[in-house]
Amino acid sequence: MADVPVPRKLIFIPDEIIQKDLIQCKNERNTQNWFTYCKPSCEKFKVSTFEEFFEPDLDKFEAFYQFIRESIQQISNEEAKYSVHNSRLLSDIKKKRTKS
Prior knowledge:
By secondary structure, this protein is mainly α. The chain is built from three helices and no strands.
């Protein structure tokens, strides 16, 4: 059974600057200087609107979900073909043994 490669467009690549800012904010959240580290993220927050910054990559998640479902179906189909082929081989072997 062959591995199914993940298409490049479905690979999640985090924004390194945002990731660094969030990690620093998390690590410093219980210190006196927490706001210095959390400021980049806090500035994007608005009480009256939901900023895209906080939204996950829903389109990419959906595409990846579809890819996984299709890959599983493809693998299942291949296994079914292989299983039928092996069943026929075993059946042929049993027939030969009973004839002998």
